[in-house]
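Review session, final week

We close the course with one last complete record, chosen because it touches almost every idea we covered. It is DUF3630 family protein, a protein from Marinomonas arctica with 124 residues. Go through it on your own first, then we will talk.
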Amino acid sequence: MQTDIEVYVLSCPTENIITWLEASFTLVKKSTSGPLCSKLTLLWQGNEVEVTILEQAAGKRFTSIWFDSDKTPWEDDITCAKQVFKALDCEVRCNFQGWEEEGNQDPDLWWRINHHGEGPFIWN
């Protein structure tokens, strides 16, 4: 189980992301901290999950969806990315190996899901 989950969606309006989250979780609180950042507190299986949606997180076209909790429905970033792609129908990218403090992973190796398929690629 990862300590948090983060995925990046390509050219997906924040309103669509929030609508999906509201349909998938119980919304406890929603706020904005600036024009590009939305923060939500969601409830899943009795646990509060803090979510930050940050537009233009990787270039102008990618939005980050960060679940700051180990209490999510997903085991890892890739499992989440698959559900996000299915729900939002836009390209999704996430870290290929998960993030570890002392790991030897390649920081440019990512997982991409789009209408052409899915698999690892170098994002730099």
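Two points worth writing down before the exam:
Helices lie at 14-24, 77-88.
Residues 13 and 63 are 9 Å apart (CA to CA).
Good luck, everyone.
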